[in-house]
Fold each of these.
Amino acid sequence: MSYKQNVAELIGNTDLLRIPSLSVLTGCEILVKCEFQNPGGSIKDRAALQMVKDAIESGELKQGMTIVEGTAGNTGIGLAVVAKALGYKMLTVMPKGQTPEKEKMIALHGSELMLVDPCPFANPNHFYHTARRLAEENNHYWWANQFENTSNAKAHYKHTGPEIWQQTEGKIDALVSVSGTGGTIGGTSCYLKEQKPDVQIWSVDPDGSGIYHYLKTGEYKAQGSSFTEGIGIMRTVANFAQAKIDKGITLPDQDLVTVSRAVRNNDGLVLGSSSALNLAGALFAAAKSGPGKTIVTFACDAGERSYSKLWNPEFLTEKGIRDDLETIEQMLERYRAMDEDVIVNVTRRG
Ligand SMILES: Cc1ncc(COP(=O)(O)O)c(C=O)c1O
């Protein structure tokens, strides 16, 4: 007999999928790691499992305790899955204004949900500080702390990176990733660079996030805003600090909408918003590197979780975004024609 012992064992070992339309269009192999296959539906299940496993091993997390975490949603869902599978309670602290889809999933997975008003990080009521404070005030709470707890990046160093290496048989030329805590890009880039130092690591950032500016100047500054959720950073956190990044770009929400429609119509994959940004980044990397390369990125979650924003025509109209502004072919041509200066060459900045 061959079976998994519990739901947590379903985490990881996701498929790597070729996106035929974008691969044919660019002449590159555009491959996505199908992280929506995890039982909690997102890449954050991996971080959740590793953080919990390490805390059990170190003795910080004991039976009967409650896991508490501040999150834009997916880490809360991942931790709720792991908590139920391994016998813990879960309390998720989430800012209001994330998609209701994620709020519902957290409750559905049996986590208690505390919604707080969205506010800047410096405000003590920010969801991050609220989760920390709750854990400080209750000794039967354990705070996962996905931003500073490097078990998060370790999950990707131990599993995601090796899976990509094996699935591509080492023929990977570039990895493209968004960052929320930087766990994914941190752990995966470290592993892949150890195997192949010249693999190019691309960071793709939405409007409203400071990573692009940070890579360029060393300072966090952001312009505009984005409807993407769970991604973007405005401070240096321990997981992102591990990332070995070669190139940085920033792309607007309009571009991820265009890619999401092309991939839905041509390939049958309904992407979440961060995944669509990843694929826009992969298209950009293909445009700039020329044909013949193998470019890997992540489908961090699936489209259901972005139903009320990315897939909601009224919402997009309110934001002034069109889903027919340009074709994917026109977008690729625009990327090809773009000045090289829009790319931050991190290694060169040294
Ligand atoms: C949908 C989605 N995509 C991407 C990310 C970013 O992943 P990471 O935290 O590993 O940088 C997150 C969460 O942080 C997320 O929820």
Amino acid sequence: MAGIPFDQRDGEIWYDGAYVPWTDAKVHVLTHGLHYASAVFEGERAYGGAIFKLEEHTDRLIESARVLGFSIPYSAEVINDACNQLLVRANLIDAYVRPIAWRGSEMMGVSAQANTIHLAIAAWQWPSYFAPEERLKGIRLDMAEYCRPDPRTAPSKSKAAGLYMICTISKHAAEAKGYADALMLDWRGQVAEATGANVFFVKDGVIHTPKPDCFLDGITRRTVIGLAKARGIEVVERAILPEEMEGFEQCFLTGTAAEVTPVSEIGPYSFTVGDITKTLMEDYMAAVLPQEPAKVAAVG
Ligand SMILES: Cc1ncc(COP(=O)(O)O)c(C=O)c1O
């Protein structure tokens, strides 16, 4: 079910400025990032050979590190180039791209001031699935037990590895009950997001979505808000209480991986896959396609 393990694949990984064989891209067990979650990452997607919103992802990666108190020792330009080159070298057209930066091994304790900051970038094939029949049924979400933390207790503006601990626990618990994912409330009890995607609702032709004040303001989220507004659809960013889900007609998730995914159920609440959701699914798939032909080179 899981396919080839991610540490045993073929290809190359960009690792601290060099291309290394995929299976050699390793860290030592005494790595600060592993023990103390001092790591930040990005999830990017290439469509037709071009990474959608690459610059925004790279800027967020650099900012995520800054929030955790470290500086990635490569410029945005170098990182963007490395992401693009990786695709070209591997002949990848529709792909997922995963940059990750972490504190190394020089010091092993809470304090790690002297640790080298590393950066690796991997990319692998991820076909774009346009066959929407399955997705059009909508996915089912459970309510998560964990809440998105107060920004005073966690660096919520950072796409930090440590923040995914509660996401994995919540997603596993939902999957064990037959759901696709879980909806997390925030520390105030307001609707926040799913475990790896932002959430939107529709009622009376208006879109409602929580303000991203304690969770990631997704790049897809911002794109979809722009697409909705371009269609003249009103988008209200506000605090949403879980009881309000009773009155919402449509619901969908947004994210680099999720794209625009309709939701049919969240706990006791049901939604239909309506016109606004379908329109935004289509508009998003049109928006992600590259404006220029793919820069694909045959690597011998
Ligand atoms: C927790 C979480 N929220 C939201 C998102 C959506 O962000 P984006 O649209 O930038 O992929 C993601 C995906 O990266 C995520 O992991």
